[in-house]
Design a protein that fits this description.
Number of strands: 15
Order of helices and strands: HHEHHEHEHEEEHEHEHEEHHHHEEHEEEH
Shape: globular
Strand order of the largest sheet: 2-10-9-8-7-3-4
Helix content: 40-55%
Oligomer: single chain
Radius of gyration: 20 Å
């Protein structure tokens, strides 16, 4: 497998995105889910071509992006979504909120599985619902999985939906087909909805290919709605495009109930870039997966050598590492101490769940090996 090399630090520091404008110049920024790799050439060329023809108007609807994604999904993900059953919007978070607004009532419970991508908590409340925490089962030593018994109990207690992270951010676990099928069975039994965030799916490693939720069973297709996009796999978050996918008449009715402006929110450049990514970005993505694979293993070696008390499990997917820094004695939020003492920015662990994230932090692996090594060296020196 070939590799895509990260851009050098001096070039990265000329970027104006959040990752590179949120900290002082002496900080190594590794919290935000942005990659340090150069944009895939087919995507860059598609955007340059759009500029040359002044193609900066409104997007032309969901179908062009949906058709490109369907080709990509069939070729790489073992999934054959129907492009006619797709509504695009600006981003995955917005898609989750729009779905939740239509499948739960005010104050209804929505299950999330801490430690979890922090905006999930806000998305549930934005939709007028209440967060129901059902933490992942297991942990760093044995690996994580869905707590199906806990989810069953929450549905039995009245929860009306669940926001699934598949693959899971921040721990990087790829949920098994059996667990996903069991989850779909619970949704059918309690007549609830699973909203599956699958934006990290293309970033699963070859030995741990993720399973799209809508492929696991008839129950999943009936009770599931997937939200995904090119944004994480191809580093396009600022261009604003995501897909909301259904596979049943029940799901179709949810999409049909969206206000028309939901689709208009997708950016024209997001649509153009997504189509180029899905149709022509495969070789670049393979190279990025190779570089992430190198870094996820390098991190294990660096921690064993320099911070042996820090606990870490090599992720199966994403470019994110979930670190248990409790042994350093840096309190509930060790990221704050790492920033102050080591000048390394990590994502605040408790934001991923007050209990599940205590003493933890998330680190972004999508950087050069040199930056990763320097970050761990700084943290080790700051003990």
């Amino acid at each position: 497998m070939h590799r895509v090399a990260a851009d050098p630090l001096d070039l990265l520091r000329t970027r104006t995105s959040a990752k590179w404008r949120s900290y002082d110049p002496d900080v190594l920024p590794l919290p935000v889910a942005e990659m340090d790799y150069p944009l895939a050439e087919p995507i860059a060329e598609a955007l340059h071509a759009a500029i040359r023809r002044s193609d900066t108007g409104y997007n032309s609807g969901s179908l062009p992006v949906a058709e490109a994604f369907a080709e990509f999904a069939a070729a790489r993900l073992g999934w054959e979504p129907d492009p006619a059953r797709v509504t695009c919007t600006a981003d995955v978070s917005m898609g989750i909120v729009e779905v939740l607004r239509r499948v739960v009532g005010h104050g209804d419970g929505v299950i999330v599985n801490p430690p979890i991508y922090p905006p999930f908590f806000d998305l549930v409340t934005e939709a007028g619902a209440s967060v129901v925490d059902v933490p992942l089962a297991g942990g760093i030593d044995e690996g994580w999985s869905l707590d199906l018994a806990g989810i069953e109990a929450a549905f039995a207690d009245g929860a009306r939906a669940m926001v699934l992270c598949n693959p899971h951010n921040p721990v990087g676990v790829v949920h098994s087909r059996d667990d996903l099928a069991a989850l779909a069975g619970l949704a059918a039994r309690f007549d609830t909805t699973i909203v599956s965030d699958e934006v990290h799916g293309p970033l699963s490693q070859p030995e741990s290919r993720y399973v799209p939720f809508l492929t696991v069973s008839d129950a999943a297709r009936e009770h599931g709605i997937a939200v995904t996009g090119a944004t994480k796999a191809f580093n396009l978050a600022g261009l604003k495009a995501a897909l909301i996918l259904t596979a049943s008449e029940r799901g179709d009715a949810v999409r049909a109930s969206f206000p028309y402006e939901v689709e208009w929110r997708m950016g024209q450049f997001g649509a153009i870039a997504s189509i180029a990514a899905f149709r022509h970005g495969g070789r670049w993505l393979d190279g990025v997966l190779g570089s992430i694979d190198d870094n996820r293993r390098l991190l294990a070696e660096l921690l064993a050598d320099e911070l042996p008390d820090v606990r870490y499990r090599v992720p199966q997917a994403t470019y994110l590492a979930w670190l248990d820094l409790s042994a350093l004695g840096w309190g509930d939020d060790p990221a704050a101490v790492a920033l102050e003492r080591a000048r390394v920015a990590l994502a605040n662990g408790p934001m991923f769940g007050a209990d599940a994230g205590r003493g933890h932090a998330r680190l972004n692996l999508a950087c050069s090996p040199e930056v990763l090594a320097e970050a761990i060296s700084r943290i080790a020196d700051a003990r």
